[in-house]
DNA sequence: GTGAAAGCGCTAACAT
DNA sequence: ATGTTAGCGCTTTCAC
C-alpha cells in the first residue's frame, strides 16, 4: 500500500549507475550526447529504482510546467466530454498533463478570475464555451501563457469554434424548405452564465427567417432550462398556447430537443407529423432516437485546440491570432417532416388548433 | 496578449513590501505569525505585482504537489461527467488542482501502468470504474501516494462504490414482481477494457432470478456495443429471434436502454406494452424519456472520493482501507409494465410471436 | 561524452 | 514577529 517512503532521486539513479546526475538527466530526456552503453546502464538503474522525474523540480529550472490547463463550465455534457476525451490522450502523447478547472457557478467563476490559479501552474490555457466579459478576457491576457478560446471566439486571440450562426441557419432553412413558416427556437441556460453559443444560434435562426422573408416573432423564442423537467413542459406549453403555435421547433442542443420531443409525445402531439423538432450537436442519443440535427464535432475541436496549445507553447508567436472555424452539417432524420397542412404564403387563415 | 516576460517572484514582492521573503511566504500562506500591518503591506505588494506562488517551487520543498489526479476510462459519459463535476469544485475549494488522465484504449492503458506518470506529480490518485488486473492494482500500490478506487472495489484499499449487485437485483426483482419470467440482460463493452461494473450487475441479475426460482438462460444475456447502432439492432434481433423471446430487458446502463427502446419501437414493438425495458443510472435522459431505472449518484461518488482523497493526503493512515458503499434506488417509470399475457408457472405453452 | 557547480523559487529550521 | 540560512530535485552552463 502507499507509504511515506522517500522516492528515489536522480542522485540515487546516478549513484547506482555509477555516473553523474547530469548524465542521468541527459539520458532520461533522450539527449543524443550520451554513449549507448552509459544510456543502457542509466536506464536500467532508473527502472530498478522505479524512478520518475519530478516535474516540479524540472519545471523550476526550465520554466515549463508540462501541463495544459482547461477551463470548463461543466464536465457533465456531451460536448465537454467529447472534447476532453480527445484532448486528453493528445496531450498525454505529447508528454503533457491535463489539469481541469471546473467552474460551475458564479462564485467559482469570480474566484477563478480573481486568483487565476492557473498562473504559473500551466503552460497554456484552453477556455471552453464561456461567454466571457471583456474584463475577463483581458484578465486572461496577462496570465503569462497562451490562452486558446474554444467553442467561442475572442478577437485577436487564437480560437477554435464552429460557425454557429451558419449551423443554426442550416437547421432553420431545413425547416423552411420543408414548408414550415411558424418555427420556434428554444435556447437553454446554464448555471455559471456560460453559453454554448446560444446567442450565435439565435442569430442564425433569425437570419434564415429573414432571408425567407418571414417576420421575427419573439413569442416563438422560449428559453428552457434543462435542469428541471417542469421548465421544459412549461416552455412547450407556452408554445402550444400561442394563438398561432409553431409547426416546428429548433432546439439549441440535442438534449433539449429530446426532452421537448418527449414532452410533446406525452401530450399526444405526434413528432414529426404534427410538430417537427430539430436539435444541434449530433449527440450520440440523436442517432439512437432518430433526431434530425446539425452535427458539430467536439472531438475535432478538442484535438485542434490541443494541437494549437502545443504549438503556442513551443512558439507563442505562431498562430497567435489564428482562428480555426470548423464546419457543421445538417443531419436530416426522422423528427423533421413537412408541416401538417401545407400552407402557401398569404393564406395564414387556414388554422388548426 | 501572452508574452515571455519574467513573472514576479517572492523576492520581488518582499522587496516591494520592504520585508524578507520568508515574511511574504508566511503572509501568503495565512500563517498567524505576521503582524496585521505587515500583512497588509505584503498583500498589497503581491496584488500590485500580480504575484502568484509557484506551486512547483513550493512543492519541491514541502513534498506536496497540491494536485489530485484521476484516472478515467473516458470523459464522455454521463457517469464520469457527473462525478468529476462534483469532484472538481470540491478540490478547488480545498486549494487543490485536478489533473486528469484519460485512458481510452489498451495502448494508453499499458503506457500508463508502465510509466505511472502520476508518480511524483500528485498527492493522491482516484481510479474510476476500471476493472483492474491484480498486477495493475499492485503497481498502483507503490505509487507513493494514496489511491482511491471509485465505482469499483479493491480489497484492503479505500474504495467508493455502489452495490451494483444489489442495484441489479432491484431492477430484476421489479420486473419479476410485474410478472415477467423471461428477462434479458444487456451488458455493454467499452474500448479500454474497463467496466462500469457490468460484471457485478450481471451477478445481481442472476441472483434475483435464482431467488425467484427461475433458471438462468445464457441466451438471454446479449452484449451490445454502444459504439455503433448496428450492434444494438443486432443484439435486439438476437433476443427477438429466440424461441421464447424475453418480455423484459434489463440494460446495463440508461444510454443502452434508450437505444434498445428506440430499436424496439422502430420495429413496432411497443414499450412497455409488449416488452418492458429498464436501465441503470438514472441518467438525465432517463427522466426526459420516462425510463424506468435504478438510480445511482455519481456526483455523490465524486464528492466522497474527493473527501476521502483529501483526508488520506492529510493522514494516509486514516481510512486506509475504508470502503464507502452508496445506495441505489429503483425508479419505476413508464417503460416497465406487466408482460402482455400474464403467465403462471407451468403453462409456458401459451406463446405469442 | 561526461562531471562539477550554480542556481530555479520557494519553505522550514533556526536565530534574533 | 521577522530575518537568515540551507536546501528541495532537477537542468544547465561550463570545464574537461
Overview features:
Rossmann fold, 3-stranded parallel β-sheet, 353 residues, alpha/beta, DNA-binding, 13% strand, 13 helices, homodimer
Number of β-strand runs of chain A: 11
Q: Give the largest interface pair and sizes.
A: A-B, 72 and 71 residues
What spatial order of strands do you see in the largest sheet of chain A? 2-1-3-4-5-10
Helix content class of chain A: 40-55%
Number of domains of chain A: 3
Tell me the major beta sheet of chain A: 6 strands, parallel
Based on secondary structure, the structural category of chain A is: alpha/beta
Overall mean pLDDT of chain A stands at 89
Uncertain stretches of 5 or more adjacent residues of chain A:
346-353
Distance between the termini of chain A: 69 Å
Radius of gyration of chain A: 26 Å
Number of helices of chain A: 13
CATH superfamily caption of the largest domain in chain A:
Response regulator
Strand content of chain A: 5-15%
The second-level CATH architecture of the largest domain in chain A is 3-Layer(aba) Sandwich
Molecular shape of chain A? elongated
